[in-house]
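Morning F.,

Quick status update on the modeling queue. The single chain you submitted on Monday has been processed. Sequence for confirmation:
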Amino acid sequence: MKIVVTGTSAGIGKAIAEKFLKEGHTVLGIDRAARAIDAKGYTHVRGDIAEMKFPDFSGTEILINNAGVQNSGEDIRINLIATMRVTEEVLKEKPKSVVFLASASASSGAEFPAYAASKGGVVAYMKNVALRMAAWGGIANSVSPGGVTTALNRHVMENPALWEKIMDETPLKKWATPEEIAEWTYFVAAVNRSMTAQDLLIDNGEQARANFIW
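Structure tokens below.
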């Protein structure tokens, strides 16, 4: 299948692209940064999804909306508006599946304000897309990670005091790896055929945290 993945030069997006390639699919990756994947079946397009002229999306069967920023001053523009821009273009191809990488903060609100708002918007938009895609049997869902061990989170991962506080709020005492999120994303996008309009929370139990005082 032809897969389009945005934000493929690092972290979760790179891991997702590599997972699809490993499974024998062709991947068109889009990122503002230079190519970071050297593999057969991978094509890299460098550009900003908010304003670039898109490459040829014809034949796209799966779209993975991963590109995003955090506390950048551009969170709404990139995470929500630009994601909508890509999606609406790919929907012209009537894809089988669209997956949005949202965030645990979409439901908890526990993040930078604009980031949480942008990801909450992504989940709401995902549901709208799912309703429209149902007309041709397509599905749309979102994957909402909590903490993930990416370079973006180095600030807290390498600070023992901050890391201890985070683990105190995380029942499973760990974060997910980019590769684990890629596995979830692959299942939701390429294996699943019956779940649609749903947001899948992967946060190692953080939102289930409850301190009972007696």
